[in-house]
Amino acid sequence: MFRALYTAASGMTAQQLNLDNIANNLANASTAGFQQRRVQFSDLLYQNEIMPGSAATQQTTVAAGLQIGLGVRPGATEVIQTQGAPSATGNSYDIAIQGAGFFQILLPNGQTGYTRSGSFHPDSQGQLVTADGNPLQPAITVPADASSVTIGSDGTVSVITSSSSQAQQVGNIQTAMFQNPGGLNSVGNNIFMSTTASGDPVVGTPGGSDGLGSLQQGMLEQSNVSVVDQFVQMILAQRSYESNSRVVKAGDEMLQQLNQLAQ
Amino acid sequence: MDSGFYAACTGLIARTESLETIANNLANSSTTAFRARHNVFSSVLASAHTSGLSVLNQDANDYGVLGGQRLDETQGALQPTSNPLDMAIEGSGYFAVQLKSGATAYTRAGNFTVSRDRQLVTAGGDPVLGENGAPITIVGQPVSVSADGTISANGAIAGKLKVVEFAPNAQLQNSGTSYYTAPAGSAKTATNSNVRQGMLESSNVNPVTSVVELITAQRDVESMRRVLTMFNSEIDKTAAQDLPHVS
């Protein structure tokens, strides 16, 4: 009875989820390397009351059928892979990826996580770790007496120590790329995990011919959240919620009219 | 029995049914490339006398029912998303999609991704078909799409999207998840459609029209109810209670 009420409710639920997602995007507008998500909606099933093309008479067919749609469902929240603006920090352990690719991070459970947040620090042993203390993979260890650290666009890390004026290489940063980065799984702390949807990571040297972006030392990639765009989305979500609730009210009033019939 | 009573009753049912379509349009106002459906009411001659009815009789028996719907084919606004795998069609065309059953469905929702096995797929995971009727495999980045639907990845041509158009009277049927099915042979190669990369077509639901439809349905129900009450309380009551008193 009265599918319209449930249809409108599905619209309200969908907009609520949309707003939840917008709130998260806006909350992370200042998170380095954060990539915004977008909710994708699709329509639900249709009930066919009259099939288009069914026979109206022996000679003619129905031109337009009668199909009652049953509402909307949020299909996916896709990670939007656009480049965030790089901001110069002057910190030699801040690295931004210009183009596609992710840094590989060894998580405490032994799994590899992926991030675009290139804010690293040397730990007590000189190994480069994230703000949470998880080491960068492959491991890069900076000697304690290093006076300057240079990271090339291809990920080559070289240091000048106090004992030698010659630059010496201490390692290469490699980045990973996914065929469908939109299908990565966010696990918080700027870390993504690979999924069957994203495909297996392709690890390589940054800035090369295999499509991986180049590295920029002393830069940090800001989030790719466009605050203006999110505000517009928020207004749309709000108004759409409102119009769906208007349908609920109209449905309610129609039912009221029907009840008055039986007075 | 009063035929007007049944006419109002049929109208009441038709209006409550029409609310469901309006609700679905509004619920999908954020669905990518959703196309609104508009109710079409039609009259049914309830007592189809072969002999023909008098004008007065015909009017009283011409019941209004919800006859069908019209698919609104107007172009939704194109929204830039800067995602290279988002594609919108400017014009009346549709992308062709291969369903798991092997059948072909059509969609205008171009929020595509690349699957694990590197095929271009819809948000629902079904492969998007190329001009040759086979899925398009995309290896490497960057991906660029030209207006005629040619996709190139990492500088090499990966394939050309199959974009089709339908005649205005084609019987497109919604099958959910933004897909449409069409009778075999009705799809023609598009001539007036351009593919726009980095854009998505928004839903073409017009909030003004929808709210007007909503109010109309609501007020129509109210007036039908009044008519029914009139029959109940005035005419029938008078007939049942007052007439026997006439002596």
What does this structure look like?
The complex is a heterodimer of chains A (263) and B (247). Chain A is of the alpha+beta class and 263 residues long. Chain A is built from 2 helices and 20 strands. In chain A, the strands form 8 sheets. In chain A, strands 7, 8, 11, 15 and 18 form a 5-stranded antiparallel β-sheet that branches. A 3-stranded antiparallel β-sheet of chain A has the order 12-13-14, with no helix packed on it. In chain A, a hairpin with a 5-residue loop joins strand 9 and strand 10 (128-129). The longest helix of chain A has 35 residues, at 227-261. The two termini of chain A are 21 Å apart. Chain B has 247 residues and is of the alpha+beta class. Helix content of chain B is 28%, strand content 27%. Chain B has a 4-stranded antiparallel β-sheet with strand order 6-5-12-15, with no helix packed on it. In chain B, helix 1 packs antiparallel against helix 3 (207-242). Chain B is elongated, with a radius of gyration of 25 Å. The two termini of chain B are 24 Å apart.
Task: Give a short synopsis of this structure.
The complex is a heterodimer of chains A (263) and B (247). By secondary structure, chain A is an alpha+beta fold.
Order of helices and strands of chain B: HEHEEEEEEEEEEEEEEEEH
The number of E-state strands of chain B comes to 17
Major beta-sheet overview of chain B: 4 strands, antiparallel
Proportion of helical residues of chain A: 10-25%
- What's the number of extended β-strand segments of chain A? 20
Shape of chain A: elongated
Percentage of residues in helical conformation of chain B: 25-40%
Query: Terminal Cα separation of chain B, in Å?
Result: 24 Å
What is the helix tally of chain B? 3
Structural category of chain B is alpha+beta
Poorly predicted regions of chain A are none
